[in-house]
Design goal:
Its EC number is 2.7.13.3. The chain has about 475 residues and is an alpha+beta fold. The chain is about 55% helix and about 15% strand. It contains eleven helices and eleven strands.
Length: about 475
């Protein structure tokens, strides 16, 4: 049994899906057609047999009414050459049989019916070479049985003709089922074939811009295959965006690295000819080289961080954003002594802990604070506030600088994006992009908006898991 199942599984694996679907659909329809034909044959046979038995019962009733007092009677000559119906009356006691022999067979069951010890019954037999069906019942009020016989060859021929007709219908139905199964497999799997062709074309060309053609119609009428194709198109759109973003990142990174690398090469070549330089020139070149190396190192580290989409699970722990905020503000005060940083922490938020990676969350906060300090005027304040609701922490960082232009708001978190007012300031344009990526990795939402009264306001909403 196991070997049979294994052979069937290997056969299914070796056949394409279209052939298996066509075979399954054809088999299902063919099974229904054969079942209907078989049921129709059984019903026809039963109905015609029942009709013959009804005629026998009616004839026996007529015989009993007309020949109630005849006594034992042998069958008439019709039973020798059965053309229609014939009858005979048989007593329970064989000694009372008539002198003439019976034309219909008399059995012990017939005697028992005459004596009232056996129920009436039907039987099939052959008389004078012709098939007949006989009904044996008890004569009312007497120990005698009435046997009535009718030819059944016409019924048998009708049943045979019905069997031949139903066989022809069943055969035609099986052929039609095969054709329908093939059509269903081709029609039903057409979107799958288009999906496969699109996937193979993308694999061959490495171009994610291809899409699967969808049938026209409202989305409410889409079937499972159409929804699969729609999902595949959505996946291709996401893949195209990912590939485009990757290419843009590589192009932007190469553009951003070209300037500092050129400066590094210039200063390195200058220091290679240190014998021709004065001590002051050599010191300036060395300082510039060190500064540019730090910039390149920071930029490369930022690119590596951006290339990571999610946080490593082993590094996730329960952290208190209030503590991280206080530490980040303290570090920012050291880096930006000319900026005034203010912190307002809701007492309800001070003890709230969320799952996260502390160094990454600290990097997010430091990027927001550095960005706010960079755009704040000297001596201007940078306000931070942390509040807690029933389901999330709300952290805001606000500066009092020129704010964000309406045209720049949709792009402030793009990689390497720098507004017109920020191009003269230091930075690579990766800080806010990294901040949003860290926020998304922690299931948080980071948004930017124009603050009332001027300046920019960045809002970080962090969900707090239920206890």
């Amino acid at each position: 049994m196991t070997g049979t199942r294994g052979l069937g599984a290997r056969w299914r694996r070796r056949r394409p899906l279209r052939a298996r679907l066509a075979l399954a659909a054809s088999s299902a329809v063919a099974l229904v057609v054969v079942g209907v034909c078989a049921a129709a044959f059984v019903l026809i046979d039963y109905q015609m047999t029942r009709q013959l038995e009804r005629n026998l019962a009616l004839t026996s009733t007529e015989v009993m009414r007309e020949r109630q007092n005849w006594g034992p009677t042998p069958s008439d000559t019709l039973c020798q050459y059965p053309a229609s119906s014939c009858f005979q009356i048989v007593p329970a006691d064989p000694a009372k049989d008539p002198r003439k022999p019976y034309g219909l067979p008399v059995s012990d069951a017939t005697r028992q019916v005459a004596a009232g010890r056996h129920a009436a019954f039907y039987s099939e037999l052959t008389v004078a070479g012709q098939p007949v069906r006989m009904f044996t019942t008890r004569l009312t009020g007497k120990d005698e049985a009435v046997q009535v016989a009718l030819r059944s060859d016409s019924v048998d021929r009708s049943v045979e003709q019905a069997a031949l007709a139903l066989s022809a219908v069943g055969g035609a139905g099986v052929l039609l089922a095969g054709a329908l199964g093939y059509w269903v497999s081709r029609t039903g799997l057409a979107p799958v074939a288009r999906l496969t062709a699109t996937a193979e074309r993308i694999a061959a060309t490495r171009d994610a811009r291809h899409r699967i053609e969808l049938p026209p119609g409202p989305p409410a009428r889409e079937d499972e295959i159409t929804r699969l194709a729609t999902s595949f198109n959505t996946m291709l759109g996401e893949l195209e965006q990912s590939v485009t973003a990757q290419r843009r990142l590589v192009a932007d990174a190469s553009h951003e690295l070209r300037t500092p690398l050129t400066a590094l090469r210039t200063n390195a070549e200058l220091l290679a000819r240190a014998g021709r330089l004065t001590d002051a020139q050599r010191d300036r070149a060395a300082a510039a080289l060190g500064r540019q190396l730090r910039e390149v190192t920071t930029l490369v580290n930022d690119l590596i961080e951006l290339a990571r989409d999610e946080e490593p699970q082993p590094l996730v722990e329960q952290v208190r954003p209030a503590t991280l905020l206080e530490h980040a503000v303290g570090v920012a005060r050291e880096h930006w002594p000319e900026i005034t940083f203010t912190t307002a922490i809701d007492p309800a938020a001070a003890a709230v802990a969320v799952p996260g990676v502390p160094p990454r969350l600290s990097r997010l906060l430091s990027n927001l604070l550095d960005n706010a300090a960079k755009f704040s005027p000297p001596g201007g304040p940078v306000d931070t506030e942390l509040t807690f609701t029933s389901s999330e922490l709300d952290l805001t960082v606000r500066d009092h600088g020129p704010g964000i232009a309406e045209a720049d708001l949709p792009h402030v978190f793009d990689r390497f994006y720098r507004a017109e007012a920020a191009r003269a300031l230091p930075g690579s344009g990766l800080g806010l992009a990294m901040a949003r990526q860290i926020a998304r990795a922690h299931d948080a939402e980071l948004t930017a908006e124009r603050a009332p009264g001027g300046g920019a306001l960045f809002r970080l909403r962090m969900p707090v898991p239920a206890a």
